[in-house]
Amino acid sequence: MKEIIADWGVDKPHFNKFFNTMLDALGVGVVLKNDSIQIDNSLAKGYVDFFPFNNGIALVRIGILFAEAINFKRLLESGPEYYACLFSLKEGIDMHVFDGEADKQEMNGLGLSGKHSVLYFSSDVQSLFRVTPDEETKIVILVFTSRALHNIFPYSTNSESSGFRVGQSLKGYSNKNAEMVEKVTDIFEHESVEHIQSLYLLGAVYQLLAVLFLQIEADRELLKQSTGVVEVARMIQIRNLLIADFSNDCPLLEEMAKKAQMSATKFKALFKKLFKLPYYQYYQHYRLQGARQAIILGKSVSNTAYEFSFNSISNFSVAFKKKFKVSPSEIEVQSR
């Protein structure tokens, strides 16, 4: 498997190094145009856009179709000079942070694996993301220094996310919620004149960071609320498995209870307590959110209904309209 060791950072010199790395790895057809890398050859087609905001914050937007699986690793810094947060629109992109070879397959205390989450880490921690061939890779990477947040992000000794502000070494996974997916999609789809686009994207970066920090705190609270930390971690892992793949029918509650190593009655009660919705309603909520996102991104209503395992287009349309007060065909027309 091809491996690309990339140099990320918050400034143009780092991005230029990243371009040279991509050129060496992918060869002819990799061109740097202003702050964008354009790729068009037999190995890959797509782009990497770089938006430096001159305040210790940068945004990297990646949209590439690779012809083969590739591992992207990051060059390590000697200390936590900056932080990076990776948000992917594709579940097939496998993301990890680790300290060494033995730690590669880790799941954090919340039971989150790289395919079901957002990745965040400081520059002194190794990271990797693996892309699937013949499926477009769509990733947003936020890169920032701790100083960039110093005047806008209040410090709290009780806050899990305050480490970003005070320059601590950090690594972890967070749940990728619907609001994050919506904001990342917006970053990919937004178009405006150049000077306004930078202002708009900077606002989107701050919003996305705020949503991420809120999710990190929410995950932490789940662990604090229960003395059964292992049980809560299992439940979060089960929840992530539940909403990772909608191509088949919803797994039976009893089957998931067995995976969580508890009775169906206990599983049912604990699931609702932790995630605020009953098991099947929770599945349906994220199933329909995913279907709506697929239509917005250009998939047809019929293909979406099939992909999200509805037994007919009419059943899909009824469920969709009941939730969103608008039909999927109307969303399809608006997204053209």
TrEMBL record:
PROSITE patterns: HTH_ARAC_FAMILY_2. SUPFAM superfamilies: Homeodomain-like. The keyword Transcription applies. Coiled coil: none annotated. InterPro entries: Homeodomain-like_sf, HTH_AraC, PchR_regulatory_protein. It comes from the Bacteria. SMART domains: HTH_ARAC. Keywords: Transcription, Transcription regulation. Residues 236-334 form the HTH araC/xylS-type domain. PANTHER family: REGULATORY PROTEIN PCHR (PTHR47893:SF1). This is AraC family transcriptional regulator.
